[in-house]
Amino acid sequence: MVDGKPNNEQRTTNNYITMKLYLKIWRQKDASSAGKIVDYTLDGVEGDMSFLEMLDILNEELISKGEEPVEFDHDCREGICGTCSLQINGEPHGPDRLVTTCQLHMRKFNDGDTIVIEPFRAKAFPVIKDLIVDRSSFDRIQQAGGYISVNTSGNTVDANAIPINKHAADEAMDAATCIGCGACVAACKNASAMLFTSAKVSQFALLPQGRVEAVERVQNMVRQMDLEGFGNCTNTGACEVECPKGISLTNIARMNREYLSATVKG
Amino acid sequence: MSGLIKSSIARKVVMALSGLFLVVFLTQHFTINITSVLDPETFNAWSHFMGYNPLVQFVLQPVLIAGVIIHFVMGFALEIQNKKARGGSYVKYKGSANAPWVSRNMIYSGLVILAFLALHFYDFWVHEMAYKYIEVSPEDPTRYYHETVEKFAPFWRTIIYIVSFFLLGLHLWHGFASSFQSMGLNNKYTPGIKTFAKIFSVVIPLGFAFIALYHHLNPVTH
């Protein structure tokens, strides 16, 4: 106990110790309406709740009062689908590291805290409603080249039949762990999508199957990224710090190499 | 080529290459300037060579000016584009949680350096151009040391120079190592490059500041 308040450890082990939180949440009716911050006070929040469960409790209270619930994106709630988002106290996915919002626990906050909750902000991520943004720009980048062309007519060759260097395979897998949540864009002061795009370029660039279309892939994906209106990377490294999957800046360097090499080749 | 410059990656590379070119220039500039403290005669000899060698005057000088212009024009263009890319602004944005101050404020350190360059050009370059090409004054290989030292007689100019060198150091602290990342170099040599870049970004601006202060404190006695 500190000043009569439970510490984080007690909050984790004793669920009955609860918190009172002051929430400042971005409310926006639809894409064309202006949004604003609305204040809510939420009592009875337990340390073992996830951040989204805390919002669920708030929404139940709002519904019971006949008010419109706060809209937010979520799906698996296991930290693997990339659907949840939220800018929490100025950081995408909140203050914890290597976790998505659904895996962020309320024990990371203290009783009496004020929490500002906003949607990810980027011109290429327009707000749909409240905290939900349209991240289909990521889909279009992926569609522009994030694939390999394989004949799947029944004679598909087993990918494991091709020997691949262990180090390259591991790096490709690390890049492929990107869940496309958009935290990199939200964190970047320039709203750049280079960490996402570079991860999607790298997961193929490192493997022999991906080399076949490597030149077109990087050119098309970078072109689409620019068309979507994302900003330019200035190597601040904010994306890497905030990425819930720990995607490394080395992927951006690789994409830069791939792009320059593709430009020279053709 | 037009497609190359339009792309975000090509613009990064342009910033990186022009920045690295300016780093090379800074090294050369510092090497000559430090001789003004160590040996005024060497300083005079080098300054005279730089001022009258046709290759330096009519090839390297325009290339240098072009390098500076490309770097700051591209920097401004990218900054404007980056600001637009955010769309609506955050109510709360905690930039300090994930990136160092210097990396987030390159535009401001850059603007201070640009303002300094205006003063620096007025102090030395405009005077040189007028001396050689407008007044068409005779060559005098011994004038440079005195002219340089006299410039630092006013305290205000010395302070402006020192503050600008501090901002230059901050700009280099992020920019120098960052240029390698922009060109696609992030490998086992990166920690070494980062260390070298940080040492450079401290030593060179500190050296320039030392030269300015030294000449302020040691005026030429006639």
Automatic annotation (TrEMBL), chain B:
NCBIfam families attached to this UniProt entry: sdhC_b558_fam
Spans traversing the lipid bilayer: 12-38, 58-80, 101-122, 155-176, 196-217
Keywords: Membrane, Transmembrane, Transmembrane helix
GO cellular component: membrane
Top-level taxon: Bacteria
InterPro entries, alphabetized: Cytochrome_b-558, SQR/QFR_C/D
Annotated signal sequence range: none
Protein name, per record: Succinate dehydrogenase cytochrome b subunit
